[in-house]
């Protein structure tokens, strides 16, 4: 017998339950969800963001919807998270959309693009600029809903064993840089290598690779990358505001009552902001340690390298758009939003940061 | 009889309520909260943010906690919002902390500072950098809890009837610019004027003031300020990431069950991000209209003006810190976080935006 019938049969109308009822947490049965993730359990920032999402849903629902987190490989391997949520093995996942490029190339737009939007611009596009609608269309055939649930902010360009003084220094460079950033490096004459995070340190030390990107000061310090690479640390162009996504099985979501649906949606939004806030707070302190304690040398790409990186990034995005009609539609929306945001940034964020920094 | 007694007396254990119970919304009594705001009802961005906060709480709680929004003057005048929440006339308010500077000067740090932190940096400081603890201490004597619940991002410097080509042009300038930004203008030899938004258009047209700041393209376009000022629009320095706050009566908050407390806290976080996303989406389009349709001229302050603005902004912040011990403590925390963030921005946001913009 479900609760509705019980209330009807006992003649107990909702309104008659009595004053003070709101002061006890809801005592109905518990729905249990499994969350699969592409991160090692408790991985700082990303994995803890997934934990936070599960905790918030459980907490706001007063325990009516309990979410249990599984790290990569605990229930399914990292790169099977999408399929696991699609077929309902798990009701929810935590990942990033560019991991599914083999299956859905255009999903990459909902993660990050080289020389693309920042975290705040991505949120503007997704929540108010039509991005979410396009994302929904993209995942619909798989029975999955995607929602922003974390952002790393501007990622660092990476760790190099030598200085990059010209385009010639990029030629032949063996660098761990996945995704579209890797494609850009390839077109510059470098060799992009894809390695899991756990192998970066050894690969750098042994000289298997000359350079690697990872995330930013907070994660890079924890990984000890400053000990592996000979000290040169460069700003990034390839992941300017990477969205981490919550993947939700559509049927599981739709079977929830409206208030729990709202709680799930809004928990994703909370984590989306919270992860960005955590990185905003932890990266500056980690950078201070890297520079002052570990004597890491900060460098910037020379202008001719930046110019080529920008040009090739635009090419790579256009090639992605050419893959299919859906990709073209998303590309057009993304680029229009990016173009307007760049112009606005010139009198807003960029103008302000330059003015503040000149002092 | 309260619900707990009822369940006990009827021998109905929580676990026995039955499978499927989670699929009906909680049917207990309703708690009703009043929300007073410093904004005109439905004012774009700020007032709609307050509406959104009320809606989210109501929705996530399945109607157990219903929040009704009152615009400025509907229940109390705009600048009595803090007192109204403090004495419990309303359980919650939506405002910004710098409005209470007459009562609590140091509250201004939780709003925005000239040449201070951006929206993401403020979130880093508040959520992960000790800012929230300081804010709690600041409002504790008043029985009020403050939480971030919206951000405008970098505000524009404003509308001017003449170009600013040197420091001499700032002397004698009558400008609507409230708060610490106004104090900076005063020290430059200008005359800060405080006027409510509704009077800006007439004051500019009649020549009562020479210039005004307001918010940014989205709000400024809606106000028609481009028709009043002779076209010169400048980037801002005075409000680089203004936090809108939710003010919550502590007793009302503490009387809520834990799940509703979590819902209130997290609804504030959702609105905090959502307002920033709305401005990120609407400002670029509004700027395009201002420039292309209304032929607004974008200008930048010359370097000697910026240098003075920076210097005087630092003085004004130091003077605020000197007002009392609490202000000094918050100032020290704020400035340490800002200093580290500025250094990080040089290889992160600022480096990236400059690299992206050069193309």
TrEMBL record, chains A, B:
Alphabetical list of InterPro entries matching this protein: DctP_fam, SBP_TakP-like, TAT_signal, TAT_signal_bac_arc, TRAP_DctP_sf
Annotated CDD domains: PBP2_TRAP_ketoacid_lactate_like (cd13604)
GO cellular component terms attached to this protein's record: tripartite ATP-independent periplasmic transporter complex
Positions bound to Na(+): 214
Transmembrane segment boundaries: none
GO biological process: transmembrane transport
Keywords: Metal-binding, Signal
UniProt binding sites for substrate: 155, 176, 213, 239
MF terms in GO: metal ion binding
Pfam families (UniProt xref): DctP (PF03480)
Alphabetical list of PANTHER family matching this protein: EXTRACYTOPLASMIC SOLUTE RECEPTOR PROTEIN, PTHR33376
Name of protein: TRAP dicarboxylate transporter substrate-binding protein
Organism: Thiolapillus brandeum
């Amino acid at each position: 017998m479900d609760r509705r019938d019980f209330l009807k049969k006992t003649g107990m109308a909702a309104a008659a339950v009595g004053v003070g009822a709101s002061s006890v947490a809801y005592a109905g049965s518990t729905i249990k969800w499994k969350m699969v993730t592409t991160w090692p359990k408790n991985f700082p920032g990303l994995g803890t963001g997934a934990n936070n999402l599960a905790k918030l849903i459980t907490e706001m629902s007063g325990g009516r919807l309990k979410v249990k987190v599984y790290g990569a490989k605990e229930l399914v391997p990292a790169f099977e998270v999408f399929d696991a949520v699609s077929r309902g093995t798990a009701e929810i996942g935590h990942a990033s959309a560019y991991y599914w490029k083999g299956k859905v190339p255009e999903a990459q737009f909902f993660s990050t693009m080289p020389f693309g939007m920042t975290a705040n611009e991505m949120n503007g596009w997704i929540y108010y600029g039509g991005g979410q609608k396009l994302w929904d269309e993209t995942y619909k055939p798989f029975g999955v809903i995607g929602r922003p649930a974390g952002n790393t902010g501007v990622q660092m360009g990476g760790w190099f064993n030598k200085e990059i003084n010209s385009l010639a220094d990029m030629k032949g460079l063996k660098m761990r840089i996945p995704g579209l950033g890797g494609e850009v490096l390839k077109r510059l004459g470098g060799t992009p290598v894809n390695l899991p995070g756990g192998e970066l340190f050894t690969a750098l030390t042994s000289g298997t690779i000359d350079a690697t990107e990872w995330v930013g000061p907070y994660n890079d310090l924890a990984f000890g990358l400053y000990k592996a690479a000979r000290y040169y640390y460069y700003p990034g162009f390839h992941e300017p505001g990477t969205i981490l996504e919550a993947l939700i099985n559509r049927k599981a979501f739709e079977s929830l009552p409206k208030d729990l649906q709202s709680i799930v949606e809004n928990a994703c939004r909370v984590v989306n902001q919270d992860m960005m806030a955590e990185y905003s707070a932890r990266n500056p302190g980690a950078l201070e340690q890297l520079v002052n304690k570990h004597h890491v040398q900060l460098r910037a790409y020379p202008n001719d390298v930046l110019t080529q990186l920008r040009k090739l990034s635009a090419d790579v995005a256009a090639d992605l758009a050419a893959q299919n009609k859906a990709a073209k539609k998303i590309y057009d929306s993304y680029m229009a939003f990016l173009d307007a945001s760049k112009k606005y940034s010139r009198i807003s964020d960029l103008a302000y940061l330059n003015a503040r920094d000149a002092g």
